[in-house]
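Exercise 7. Predict the joint structure of the components listed below.
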Amino acid sequence: MVKKSDATKARLLQAATQEFAMYGIAGARVDRISAAASANKNLIYVYFGNKEQLFDTVYQAAIEELLEAAPFDAEDLPGYAGALFDFYVAHPHLIRLARWHALERPGDEVLPVAYGATQDKLRKLSAAQSAGLVDAGMPAHALLTLILVLSAAWSDGSPEARATGDAELAALHRHSIVVSVGRLVRPPRGAGDSRG
Amino acid sequence: MVKKSDATKARLLQAATQEFAMYGIAGARVDRISAAASANKNLIYVYFGNKEQLFDTVYQAAIEELLEAAPFDAEDLPGYAGALFDFYVAHPHLIRLARWHALERPGDEVLPVAYGATQDKLRKLSAAQSAGLVDAGMPAHALLTLILVLSAAWSDGSPEARATGDAELAALHRHSIVVSVGRLVRPPRGAGDSRG
DNA sequence: GACGAGAATCTAACCGATCAGTTAGATTTG
DNA sequence: CAAATCTAACTGATCGGTTAGATTCTCGTC
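Solution:
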């Protein structure tokens, strides 16, 4: 059954995502969110508790969306990094949410869903290292962090991005990331896989 | 001559740096800053204008400190990345300031001092590429961004940092960064430099 | 070296605006 | 009718910024 309130909830969540991505938790305004959602302010408190919990809900949804967007492939890590890059370009607000969260909730433990996904990635990555498909010169968790960081290198707030909408520049950035990850993970001596 | 007000100004700046690093611009409280500096709130407005301008002053000082800390060396980029990592470990609040700035002042142009320093780095990097000391497979500006991003990979807010104060882990992170940058910048065929 | 005017420095109290959260009730739905 | 959904107005606290005035320092003049 389609409930009326579900649509309102969805509009509020959508508006809250924009607002939190733009201004962070401290900077977000509950009145702006309800106005943008064409909903009454009180509904936020009825449906989501308060501003902090609303952020939690928004953030959880964003993380889940991100996890689904780029399936982890330990045997093609450059491709995985490229997919992440594409996702960040397509959804710039999600990475902003993640950065706000890191800054405004320093002590927050990782969401269960994200934790599970990370453990899964680490397992696959270790296996690929053992199989000789990926360089084993550093532990899987370090390698994973570096790959993730490289993927997000140009996603907002980096030294010389600024010129948005430049497809040529974006292509260069993507290429740089893919090449970099390739160099990071390529095993020193041949072990089955080789790429053109 | 040593002016009394200079000491007050310095205390305010110190307190403001802590406050902004902790809470960002929107989250920072001028009353907390003045209290932490044991100074009257009004002095902030007398000396620095307002909260936004106080942040500008704090941020500018932080950038200058960061630029002085790790001298750029295009011929030893892994070492440069390592020095940056060390600085981030020693001064965790400065990188937080930079991240707050990126999020809360999206359209802000780069500070002149930072712009100048970046141009200088790019020139040196290009020269090193031309000389065959550094891989020329991607433009200098892209390479520089990737190096900077790698250096800051574990500086706050990354997936599995959390355990601060762990010297062994920090050493692993530093090593991972140095090795990664080494792989990034090493030219494909021998060109003078070779490393163990 | 005393002294006083004026500038520099500092203080405490205040103010208007804003904001998260509440309440009481209207309207719709089942 | 009763529960779910929604609305508008209100509230108490907080916060950035201001104001008026107290205190201290600077320096020329006698």
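Discussion. Chain B has two domains: 1-58, 70-190.
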